[in-house]
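Q: Convert this sequence to structure tokens.
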Amino acid sequence: TLCWDEFKDSFEDHKMAQKWMLLDFGPDECRQLFALLDDGDGEIETNEFFEGLSRMKGSAQAKDVYRLQKTMNKLVISLAEANVIQHYVSKGEEEEAACDSFGLDVGQGLQSGSGA
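A:
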């Protein structure tokens, strides 16, 4: 796995930076690329790394499409959580019980995004 610091350091290393440039990634894209490759746990697993890079191979447009796919996946999960919580609340259960079913903090509601 790669943590953020290791990933960032790869863009600062001259030889690795050249390899990133061959893949059409510059230092200014480091944070965004990490966020795209990471599944949300703060580390990039080997399979996340290679699957993500292979899906972004090609022109900048491919990167944009992949970014949209990741955003859409997060949105679908948030909507699913909202629907389930709405269902619980409409059945008369407290918001706290609905949030507990997803492991969400009541204070954060759906903003935590760590449900499913």
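The beta strands are 2-3, 43-44.
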